[in-house]
Design brief:
By secondary structure, the chain is of the alpha/beta class. The chain has one domain: Rossmann fold. Helices cover 34% and strands 14% of the residues. It is built from 9 helices and 9 strands. A 9-stranded mixed beta sheet has the order 3-2-1-5-4-6-7-8-9, with helices on both faces. β4, α4 and β5 form a beta-alpha-beta unit. α4 crosses α9 and α5 packs across α6. It is globular. The chain starts with a helix and ends in a 5-residue tail after the last helix.
């Protein structure tokens, strides 16, 4: 009888593990895009992205890391109407399979106040809610494999990036939404500052626009004509990683649209691609020829940090790896090694 009970328990455990794996694969399944779709302006990814996510679905997590989801898809994307005093952000805890359980801002802040470090990850364009979770967990695993084993809190910022029309129209809508998302994320950053939790930020494409906008707004800067209440917060010493960021290449310069961002930065990693056929047409967003994306042109100059010193920037043109594609996960493979660079950003938050 004990032998039969042992076999039954093992069978149930196997079914549970298979169930978890199938859920991750289901979440990731929406990432397939037809091969001819890469010509679409700010299209999601090339077709080979599906296999990349599947391959990572079984990667190991550690019990110490905590996974979170902050979802802004149910609140307004109109900056003029956004509640910047107490936004109703939907906060959940995630398990390794991407299953969410409801949480709250109070629980989130109380939990991360004891954390060695928090990483905020903002995804790119044209992802549905489930796809955003799958992508955030994939990037988490790519960095987890390479970094220090000190436990962290990994936060996926899920914003309304689902497809809205075609070509440049969609990109203009998302560019506008990124301002609102930057204001919401800045509100979260100020809460991080209040509890003095070390923070790193990673953003891809329009997610990079959200990240730099949040850093700027947290310091008191305006986005879409709006700013957070109260005095700006500076000197947070945040390490940030931008992958193919869809922002103008002069926005982080002195007097640029995101000029205050560097006042909260410790250092920056910038991965760009001079062959990106999508970011090459970045100028179509505002219909101004000559405008160039930072994720296409690479670094020029940046405003100083809060202490007046130059911002340390590590940059790399990943064109030999990524080619003409606007593909996030290609940056995490081969010679570009985004996972290694982002892992180093996180590890630097820990005391020696």
């Amino acid at each position: 009888m004990q032998h039969l009970n042992h076999k039954a328990a093992r069978s149930m455990q196997t079914r549970s593990q298979l169930s978890c794996l199938m859920l991750v694969m289901f979440v990731a399944a929406g990432l397939f895009i037809a091969p001819n779709a890469e010509a679409d302006f700010f299209q999601l990814e090339p077709a080979n992205e599906f296999s990349s996510v599947q391959a990572d679905s079984g990667a190991a997590e550690t019990a110490e890391d905590r996974l979170w989801l902050i979802n802004t898809r149910r609140i307004t994307s109109n900056a003029a109407c956004a509640d910047l005093v107490s936004p109703t952000l939907s906060i959940s805890r995630l398990n390794a399979c991407g299953q969410a359980s409801p949480s709250s801002i109070d629980e989130y802040l109380a939990t991360i106040s004891q954390s060695p470090a928090v990483v905020l990850y903002a995804h790119g364009n044209r992802l549905e809610s489930g796809e955003a979770i799958g992508r955030g967990l994939t990037v988490y695993r790519r960095t987890r494999q390479l970094r220090d084993r000190t436990p962290i809190d990994w936060v996926i910022w899920s914003w309304p990036s689902q497809k809205e029309g075609l070509l440049a129209k969609d990109a203009r809508i998302k560019a506008s939404r990124a301002d609102t998302q930057g204001l919401y994320m800045a509100w979260i950053l100020r809460r991080h500052a209040e509890i003095a939790v070390p923070t790193a930020m990673i953003g891809y494409s329009f997610g990079g626009r959200v990240v730099t906008g949040a850093l700027h707004a947290a310091a008191g800067g305006k986005l879409a004509g709006r700013s957070l209440q109260g005095a700006g917060v500076t000197g947070m010493q945040i390490n940030a990683g931008l992958v193919a960021p869809a922002i103008e290449d002069d926005w982080m310069q002195r007097c640029g649209y995101h000029s205050e961002a560097t006042k909260n930065l410790n250092r920056l990693v910038l991965l760009y691609n001079r062959r990106d056929v999508i970011l090459k047409r970045y100028w179509l967003i505002n219909r101004v020829r000559g405008e160039s994306a930072l994720g296409y042109s690479g670094p020029k100059s940046f405003a100083a940090r809060i202490d007046g010193t130059p911002l340390p920037v590590i940059s790399k043109d990943c064109a030999p790896t990524v080619g003409v594609h606007h593909s996030e996960m290609d940056y995490y493979s081969d010679s570009c090694r985004a996972g290694e660079k982002m892992s180093a950003l996180i590890d630097e938050l820990f005391p020696n």
